[in-house]
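Quick one:
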Amino acid sequence: MFATLKTTLLEHRQKTRHRAGWMIVRSLVATVLFIAAGLKAYQPDLGNSIFETLWFQTLLIESEITLALILLFNVIPKISWLITTLLFTIFSVVSLAKGLSGAESCGCWGAAVQVNPYFTVVLDLFIIGLLTIFRPSGIVFRRQAFFQELTGLKFDKRFFAVVGIWLVVALPVAYAMTSVQKNDLAEFGTEFIGADGKKIILLEPEKWIDKEFPLLPYIESKEKFDKGLWLVLLYKHTCSSCRECQRLYHDLSKDFSQRNDCPNIAMIEAPPFETDKNYQLDSKTFFYGKLTKTQKWRMDSPILILVENHYVKSHFTNPLDIDLIRAIWRNGK
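Output:
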């Protein structure tokens, strides 16, 4: 009798710890989802790929908010556990792929916060591990069990709390995201007005040909950007190919500076700016400038243009092809 009672007490204690563990884990995951959704809503990471489009970002934010509320109030726990585990598995794979491709940020936290993809992979795997250890009680990996939970959903105060908070939080966020305006600006490229009211300008140099270089008023220390022939490299230090271009054109400037028939070289950095930058200390053979922070500039890759007397003459589609640049001026063109 005492052995049976002891066994019962141990089982009750284990179930209590398990329920407490599930409560802590789902609260933690809900917090992570709320933070990720909030940062993406504040400053979405808009781009050209399907995963960076406005509608996909809006859908992802709404899904994260909805799942976070369901976890927080423990509605349909078995189904929400399964969806959460699958979702963070997908997140970890995407972040790992971005890390292997050389991306500086996973993009999971919006454009405002740059987070190393490998850090996000570790976080995702940590959450998956917690979800594996602490699961809702009585979970059975059968399709019928999940279907029964869904059909047996109780419309109680927890359900209405989720719906009420979703209406208060998620709907305004969706409205703000979908109200983002997109206008074409011939002088720069494409301008986005984000949900936070800040401008995001996607630079499109192919629109600048035979026009005055439109970024001149936005370059700090532009008094050194004198008339004449210039190869202008626009870059961000968060871009791996941009960093390679930095090295290539830094070396090229040493060669070109010794010759009268070659263009001057200018390197223009877009914010956020890199700290402790060696290229700034060794800029005797080229001009270094910064784009002002009055706008949020976006470029999908380094930009190389040829500017003559402040007018854009050419746009090079592959700035990394340094042999082509050397060949052009080796032949005196």
